[in-house]
Amino acid sequence: MAEPWDDYIDAVGRALSLPIEDAWRPAIRANLEVSLKMAKLVDEFFLPDEIEPASVFTA
Questions:
Q1: CA–CA distance from 38 to each of 14, 23, 31, 33, 44 (Å)?
Q2: What is the chain's Cα-based Rg?
Q3: What pTM did the predictor assign?
Q4: Considering Cα of 5, then 11, then 16, then 19, what sign does the dihedral take?
């Protein structure tokens, strides 16, 4: 049975001309799942429209 991410992994691999070995798929799936969880946390964090951007300090 195909995993939910398999079609996405195949499509991105083709789009980027990357060969994807079957042994890599579990690690790729795990990375995508963690990345999606982190993106959800950022997306759900409320920032009011009036918020000012952080200062940028350079040395």
A1: 25, 25, 11, 9, 10
A2: 18
A3: 0.70
A4: positive
Pairwise CA distance, residues 51 & 30, whole Å? 34
Residues ≥6 apart with Cβ < 8 Å to 12: 18
Q: Is the sign of the CA dihedral 38, 41, 43, 46 positive or negative?
A: negative
What does the pLDDT look like over 1-59, one tens digit per residue? 567 789 999 999 999 999 999 999 999 999 999 999 999 999 999 989 899 988 999 98
Supply 22's token pair.
Answer: 């079957």
What is d(CA 27, CA 33) in angstroms, rounded to the nearest whole number?
A: 10
8 Å CB contact between 19 and 13? yes
At 57, list the tokens: 């300090």
